[in-house]
Design goal:
Blueprint lengths: L2 E2 L5 E2 L3 E4 L2 E4 L15 H22 L6 H8 L9 H24 L1 H20 L4 H29 L3 H29 L5 H20 L14
Antiparallel strand pairs: 1-2, 3-4
Helix pairs in contact: 1-5, 1-6, 1-7, 3-4, 3-5, 4-5, 4-7, 5-6, 6-7
Length: 233
């Protein structure tokens, strides 16, 4: 509850309860360790990491479309309606994933959400490499899509954290959009060249790319969204 000072003006206590949540009052809305006050080099590292993560995952989205014949032969797929399923199921996961990783990034930090999601993406990309049956491959692709959704979902908020200036933020988001378009274009090309001998090679290549990206992600400084001064339940 607010109190009155000697002049009769209401003042808020250090903490006020709104509903059932306790909302801290931030004395310094722009602390020195805030992501917006990081050095230029540190911010560029975060931007590049986000771009590499997004390129990895968007490339995987269209990957099977470049090796349809190899997949049909390996899994004895005869119905044309099923040929699009490895890409379609991935996109279903791409829709479901943000429902999980968006809230995680808001409550536990951007890096936590990205690490969990990229871990899921890497693990089930490996599972795709060794998928024994067509249904198992589709299930693994769904989980790969769930994990792949986080860079697209979380990175925009991450750039917003480090760039309060809309000019710089706009440039970073433009590059993010560029990787979102280039990745799906490169995927079928990689698959077309690599799956001429074995369809698994396209997934092995994306797995290697994911493993190489992990040091960038693990060394990225942690980010957390700016604390909300007021949160209405």
């Amino acid at each position: 509850m607010p109190t009155r000072n000697a002049l009769g003006v209401e003042e808020a206590l250090p903490e006020e309860k709104i509903g059932v949540r306790t909302v801290p009052c931030v004395s310094d809305p722009n602390p020195p360790n805030h992501a917006a006050n990081w050095s230029t080099g540190k911010k560029l590292y975060v931007v590049i990491t986000g771009l590499v993560l997004n390129f990895n995952t968007t490339l995987s989205s269209s990957l099977p479309s470049g090796s349809i014949d190899s997949l049909n032969e390996a899994f004895h797929v005869t119905q044309r309606q099923q040929e699009a399923l490895p890409v379609a199921i991935f996109l279903v996961g791409y829709v479901v994933g943000p429902l999980l990783f968006g809230p995680i990034s808001e409550h536990f930090g951007r890096k936590a959400g990205l690490v969990l999601a990229f871990g899921l993406y890497t693990l089930f990309t490996l599972a795709c490499c060794v998928a024994p049956t067509w249904p198992s491959l589709l299930f693994f692709r769904f989980l790969v899509g769930c994990g792949a959704s986080a860079p697209q979902t979380v990175t925009g908020g991450m750039y917003s954290d480090i760039y309060p200036n809309l000019l710089y933020r706009g440039r970073a988001v433009t590059m993010l959009g560029l990787t979102s378009n280039v990745g799906p274009l490169v995927g079928p090309v990689v698959a077309g060249f690599s799956s001429t001998r074995d369809w698994r090679w396209m997934f092995w290549i994306t797995l290697v790319m994911a493993v190489v990206t992990w040091p960038l992600l693990l060394l990225m400084p942690g980010l957390h969204p700016t604390p909300l001064l007021v949160f209405m339940l």
